[in-house]
Input
Amino acid sequence: MSNHDSATSPRPARLPFASPTASRGQWPAPRRRRLAAIALTMATALTAAACSSSGGSTDAAKGPVTLTFWVKSPFPDGKVLIDQWNKLHPDIHIKLDVVSASGNTIPQAKLLLDVKAHREPDVAIFDTEYLPQFVTTGSVLNLNTVKDGDASALSSKFESWAWSTVHVGDGLYGLPIDAGPLNLYYRKDLFAKYHLQVPKTMAEYVQAAEALHKKDPSVYLADLPTNDASVFTAMAWAAGAKPFKVKGNSWVVDIAGAESLKAAKTWQQLIDDKSVMTLPQFSSEWSQAYNTGKLASWMSAAWAPGPLKSFAPKTAGKWAVAPMPQSTPGVASSGSWGGSSAVVFKSTKYPEQALEFTKFLTTNQQVWSEYWIPKITLYPTNIDAQKSEALSKPDSFFGGQKIYDTISASNHSVAHDFNYGPVANEWFTTEQNYLSQAVNGKMTVAEALQQTQKSVVSYMRKQGLSVEAP
Output
């Protein structure tokens, strides 16, 4: 992509938990987490945005300016969004750079290479799970350093748990866009046919899965995918897991903590009883299982209704949405799968204008009502956008249920203080590989987490990161 020349941009001092070598989807639609070799070759210094100046000189901002905006596909009708911006800001032009997300390509890996080559855009949107990894490259601007930007004052405009995910240490490195709180999407007709109650706890979830498969061995309540660790991570989040956090000068890594082991126990029971499918998520076989009633529910995120309607059209009108079954009875707690954030890169010549554009992307209500919600069916982290009329309508696919009433409640109950780590590629790919072995009986799910912990800690230390482990 063409870009401004960032080679002369100032690079501030290194953060105390910096890595001299670091490297690892925006729309949480089907994402492939196969590790891209190019992401592993990243080697750039982690720098302290919290104590730095904000990008290039503002003198360059006199007169019309152009900001490069990087986003991964699908980004349908992007001109709608850009036209909205241009009407409000005729002197700040947006150059849209939509990167293909087809095949096994990980767009974020390409962006990491662009960062290494000093070709980064002014503004980008990508999966929030990658944010700490980009911060580790030293390329992402701490929005608190933008002159007169008053970015921290935006905190009241966003769901508090989502606001915490765009922080690394004391720095604010992005603004959250959408959320992926977990819910239980289930087939009402199959639950009625097999006399199943909608499970309110994870223990009841296991019991329902066992009962259903016993009544009809061809039907399953759930699928534990072998190609994506995201669902498991979100379930562990709901149970209170804190796999990564910053402590002083170090990252504390606790992937196999007690809370994560709660989620492991649930899946281990289902595996041992052979009452769970283990199909690759979003594969043709997996989609067919939903379309033909072989899978009776999907523990998934707020964005799931869109894909569900696409791959299981024959089941229209038969679905309903319920809150995610709870790990602790009586305690409402969810986790988030997916979600994206808008970031500004430190090399921008126009930090004030770039911050203004990220505010527009995340808080402008016309953008939400005319683009994010109708075009891409995102569920907002912005509190005002959650009140959008578009989210209050009955959904015929779900039998006329106002599904966002349930999704909203789940969003408000997402557990706080969850943080992604600085090696998202390595973490997810490693955990996915070990979970696949657990599914095949080569180890338990708990052992898969323990092995992931060891591998990720070892990898982080080899990258020069300061790591503490329980």
About this structure: The first helix runs from residue 37 to 40.
